[in-house]
Amino acid sequence: MNALAMGPVYAKLLAKIPPKVIRSEAENEHYINALYALEQKRSLKREEKELADLLTLLIEDFEAKRYQLPRATPRQALSFLMGSTVSNRKTCWTSSEHSASFPK
After folding, report:
1. I need a surface site. Which of 57, 58, 63, 75 has the fewest CB within 10 A?
2. Which of 31, 12, 13, 14 lies closest to 22, judged by CA?
3. Distance between CA atoms of residues 51 and 54, nearest Å
4. What is the predicted pLDDT for the residue at 71?
5. What is the mean pLDDT of residues 48-70?
6. At residue 19, what are phi and psi to the nearest 5 degrees?
7. Residue 45 near residue 38, CB atoms below 8 Å
8. What is the Cα–Cα distance from 86 to 50, expressed in whole angstroms?
9. Which residue from 33, 14, 27, 11 is spatially nearest to 62, judged by alpha carbons?
């Protein structure tokens, strides 16, 4: 739905929080704070819900591009996971000495 179809209430909200493509961390934080303020209300008007949806899309788009996870093959992922647990392995074996599921 466009701003004209939503009416003057939505136009007023857009004037207060003009949506645009997020290009910086500061802009992202600004929109996150605006979205948080909307979510703190007990009940949202239809126009506020539309703005919340729009802000959510803008934030998700920015963060998906900015914080992209590197691609990994299944072998690389498994290797990473196994490597990250090596430091915890001794703790795991020590704390589970009395467990029947782990050999002594």
Report:
1. 75
2. 31
3. 5
4. 87
5. 94
6. -75, 140
7. no
8. 48
9. 27
Three-state SS at 94:
helix
- Backbone torsion region of residue 59, taken as left when φ is above 0, otherwise alpha when ψ lies between -120 and 50, otherwise beta: alpha
- Domains of the chain, by residue range, sit at 9-66
Distance CA 38, CA 49 (A): 8
User: Which two tokens mark 79?
Assistant: 């290797």
Q: What confidence tens digit (pLDDT) does each residue in 22-41 have?
A: 999 999 999 999 999 999 99
Residue bearing tokens 């703190």: 40
For 99, the token pair is 């467990």
Q: Among residues 7, 4, 1, 12, which one has the least CA distance to residue 54? A: 1
Residue 17 CA, distance from chain mean position: 20
List of residues 6+ apart from 41 with CB closer than 8 A: 48
